[in-house]
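Model: You mentioned two targets. I'll fold them one after the other.
Researcher: Yes, keep them separate.
Model: Target one:
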Amino acid sequence: MPHKTEKMISMKQVKLGVFLLPSGQYVGAWRRASAVADAPINFAHISDLVRTCEAAKLDFVFLADSDGLTRPWTEMGRDPSSLALEPMTLLAALASITENIGLVGSVSTEFNEPFHVARKLLSLDQISGGRAGWNLVTSAWKLAAANFGQEHLRSHADRYERAIEFVEVVKGLWDSIDESGVDFDKATGEVVDLEKVHVLGYRGRHFQVEGPLNLPRSPQGHPVIVQAGSSEPGRELAARTAEVIFTAQSTIDDAKAFYADVKGRLGKYGRSPDDLKIMPGIFPIVGKTMEEAQTKSRDLAANVDPDVALSNLSMFTGTDLSGCSLDEKLPDLPETEGHTTRRQMIVDKARQDDLTLRELFQWFGAARGHFYVVGTAETIADQIETWLREEAADGFNLMVPDFPNGLTEFCDLVVPELQRRGLFRTEYEGPTLRANLGLQVPANPFL
């Protein structure tokens, strides 16, 4: 018997990325017997994970990053996520062993210059044949500032103002040389058609960039711009510039409100709703039966290290909670210029459910405020279908609890169920990330 909503959704398919945290999203998952202990710096392991994603026809892998530690170095001792390879270097290596899957990496607008970022990302896009994506971040980690001669982070508003100008420069540089502007004509000796070179000459408040960039336009026009953030300035920046937004929404009602709000802002920037794919994080624990899935959830929770979990809470709230008793409630928090939206989510959860710090970190140590679902392939597919149908999401970024098992279980069990319902591809639509996400190729402003 066909699934009851098969016809209703056949016109829209879900987009699926994977948040590639090689040690696993669940705090302590790296200590399971099935886990690869040195996962964050083990290229062979990471390569295997990405090949698994590509075999399942997933849209992209997503690498988060920060320009330095996200917590004091004295807290690195028990947290494997403190270690990480540099994203652009890693993605360039992964491009050589893959053919279709998108490669999205985080690069900050706060501690970089637009010319460097434009060149690195366009190089990755050329190397991969048009599969690169830029997760645009404004850096909310105050420890990173000390690595760049700054005592403090700029204000939240100032960081986003700088980011708007940063993106304008990067996109302008990506159009420096037309697609047909590079000849390599041995007969005439011409390498670049100078009539197809465009000097940016940008003069703004934050940046003065002459250009041009020494690469032609991407096979997909531009690398895909991704943004992770849900604050008011973050929503506005996404509406102006992003093509994919990765957001933390733990309930369908919150997700629907976010979806409607951000999509509703696109018109004033001359954009249509299809120009931006909204992809909340989903934290799936999959079992062949509900009982098996619930047992996995309990087993993962048993590995949570209280010190690391409390450190995570401190990191996202911007307040040192290390001296607090685990059996007390979350204290009043001072204002922060860090993760304002995630901080408010934590505070709201603690107050609404009257949680102790122990209960709070058990909740946050799993999905970190993202959509947490435990069940069989069928029940998880039901949830995904409901979010898609009710315009809570265009897709999801998978927050895999543990690698490799959590990934292979999702790919082997949930993906075929989504395909059976007509909700997910069986083959890639095209050779570029933009083609597979269903995004338009940016027009060349000089043609």
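Model: Target two:
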Amino acid sequence: MNSFDERSSATRDAWYICFVLLLTFAFNYLDRSIISILVDPIKREFGINDTTIGLLQGGAFAVFYVVFSLPLSRVADRGNRRNLLLTGVVLWCTATASCGLVHSVPELFLARIMVAIGEAVLMPCAVSMLSDSFLPQQRGRALGIFSMGPYLGGAAAAIGGGTLLHSFRSSSVNVPWFGMLSAWRAVFLVVGVLGFILVPLLLMVREPARFRDDGRRAEQPASVGQLYRELRRKRLAILTVIFGFSFIAMAGQTLQAWVPTLFIRAHAWNVKQAGVRLGLTALVLGPLGAISGGVLADRLGRRGWLNSKVILGGLAALISVFASLVLTLPGALVAMVGVASVYFLFGFTYGLSQASIADLMPNRMRAQTTSLYSLVNNLLAAGLGPLLVGVLNDHVFHDPMKIGESMRIVLPTAFLIAAGLLSWGRGAVRHAVADARSGTVSVET
């Protein structure tokens, strides 16, 4: 049995891995984004402004995520990815629960930093594991399904977090073993503890064998020099994918961080209304977009469109420029049309970014290249996007109620830059993917 047959016969194991990684991604995003529904109670308790909230949602997370992502991704390319991911899950779930037990803003920053360090292992491990579990022509669909995770997690944060916060009603909740806690603290604690259900599921995952796209077993771990030479040789394609999709992620993360607050402030929704309505919208349209993007990219790829993923990503980003303007218009119904459109389009592109990296790079370099993408992604998406809205609110408009105007600046600009980059580099991507499919990559021979 050759390696392609071996991989194709492992259908049940492959789809189990995809399901567990999807669920892990959902909890990853839930733990990361639950703070977005708790903005106002945290501000009241600690007496902080929107800029500090923007740092808590973005900067405190992004900087340490990217610092730890690179060395952890090298471990993922060289060692057991399942065990590394399991360690990260335990760390980030513990840190999320700890967010509810802090006594000061610096302690909350520290807890968010620990969430970031734990979550830094997911994308390098998951993209590498899924790329080895599925054939190249199935990769877009598998990574599209995996990319439903942020929408499931974001919906759980909005619906579950908003409902929990609303159901507690009183300012304090009696939590067994922990005593009286503020309602927002209890939400953090519940969410963090729930994540431990991933541990037994991951223990049943078998570490996938490593394969090249030509069907042979993967090469030995690449040296830093080999990685550098491969990145340099494909630099235009890599830069296109990393920066193009990162600007889309910047807009998506900014939307995730601030859209509940937009509807609470600008449209007088309460926390439960914002959580349930926005969460259900994300839960339906985000996964629909993710599956649609992956299936369409695979279909075009089979017809010879080697750069189908960046072409589709650029088109989705261009349409999102107009959708993001609509979501800031007066009137809750009109704004929801814009939100729904962006949720679908962001989901459409999410799996395309990961699949593009897998298409471009040899097996033993995928986790590290994914980490480079995560580095840029988080500096722009988690670090800069949410912070810019807070800074504009506090220091340009000097009015928290001007959040719509702030988002009207940040979101369309990010989407427009993304569309331009992905269009500019589509030729370089086509040539790099053809090179990778030919099996002539020097580090693999």
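Researcher: Noted. Anything on target two?
Model: The radius of gyration is 21 Å.
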